[in-house]
Design brief:
The chain is built from 15 helices and eleven strands. With 330 residues, the chain is an alpha/beta fold.
Length: 330
């Protein structure tokens, strides 16, 4: 049985703490139903063992005292939340996390829990990520960390960091897959209605979310048109005509609204569309290329190689879903 300590703090985000707990307990439930030993022993830990009040006001306890913990553990998981980047300034908490992490086989942070690991020195000289709204602050505070602002989770040796809240669930499913096998991870994902195989190489946010929301209603309508119709003619001339503007004026207005040229924005939308198709159940590269607006597999391959460093075939092999039948249900 793997002993897991989930470290909470006042103001921690309940969705993170409870979500991580429920994923691990789901693995235990699957084992119980299969008549096999439970793989995890999960405990909540706080700095002094007292109950904690989460960000929403929910109070949780009892908890193990992190400062006095001397047991060897398999996995230390540090939870984030709106106050994590402030809580990390407590040198006593940082020292306790550093000491316990030294006794753990692996150490994990969820979302802004990375600030606590960073303050503890656990991330020095490593690659790491955190929530996209805090990556600049994270990099400024901790220059010894190689911050990857794009990935949903990052593994560097025995240390794992995740980006946003639900990215932590992807990370946990990856750990479950490593610990007890892909069938268990897939079944838990199906039970909890999570992504089956989102990996750390995938981005934190879509093209639509990554760019500013247009302030002008006509531009918002154009954005929806582009997102919904990646396979149609989206050339500068076609888009300018749709907006009844000259090409030069349209390009200026579009770039001011989206912080990208029209051509670059369309490229990102088409790449994202192709990725989504290959991640789901699309097995025909020619069909995916046409649906994403590339026209043919060769053009799609060039785009993938340039942007991602791998071919569409390799991308599908790594990230494509292979749904497993649901054998158990909660």
């Amino acid at each position: 049985m793997r002993r897991v300590l989930i470290v909470g703090h006042p103001g921690a985000l309940g969705m993170e703490l409870l979500g991580v707990h429920d994923i691990l307990q789901s693995a235990n439930e699957l084992a119980r139903r299969a008549g096999t030993p439970e793989p995890y022993r999960v405990e909540l830990a706080t700095l002094d063992g007292s109950d904690i009040t989460l960000w929403t006001g929910l109070r949780l306890g009892p908890a193990r005292n992190l400062r006095t913990t001397r047991i060897d553990i398999d996995t230390l998981i540090v939870i984030g939340g709106p106050s994590a980047h402030e809580v990390c300034a407590d040198p006593v908490l940082a020292a306790a996390v550093r000491r316990v992490a030294g006794r753990a086989r692996r150490t994990v942070s969820i979302c802004t829990g990375s600030f606590i690991l960073a303050a503890a020195g656990v991330l020095d000289g490593r690659r790491a990520t955190t929530h996209w709204t805090m990556t600049d602050e994270f990099a400024r505070r901790y220059p010894r960390i190689e911050v990857d602002p794009d990935r949903i989770f990052v593994q560097d040796g025995n240390v794992w960091t995740s980006a946003g809240v639900t990215s932590g669930f992807d990370l946990l499913l990856s750990l479950v897959e490593s610990d007890i096998g892909p069938e268990a991870a897939r079944t838990i994902a199906q039970i909890l209605v999570l992504y089956l195989r989102r990996t750390g190489n995938q981005t934190q946010f879509s093209t639509q979310l990554a760019n500013p929301l247009p302030t002008r209603e006509p531009m918002r309508e154009l954005q929806q048109y582009i997102l919904a119709n990646p396979a149609v003619d989206l050339s500068l001339a076609a888009l300018a005509e749709r907006m009844t503007m000259s090409q030069r004026h349209f390009a200026r207005v579009f770039t001011a609204e989206f912080a990208l040229s029209p051509g670059r924005y369309v490229e990102k939308v088409r790449l994202e569309t192709a990725r989504r198709l290959l991640e789901s159940d699309c097995r025909d590269l020619s069909a995916a290329a046409r649906a994403a607006g590339y026209g043919n597999p060769q053009a799609m391959r060039r785009a993938f190689t340039l942007a991602l460093g791998i071919s569409p075939t390799e991308y599908r092999r790594r990230f494509g879903d292979t749904p497993a039948p649901l054998h158990l249900a909660v």
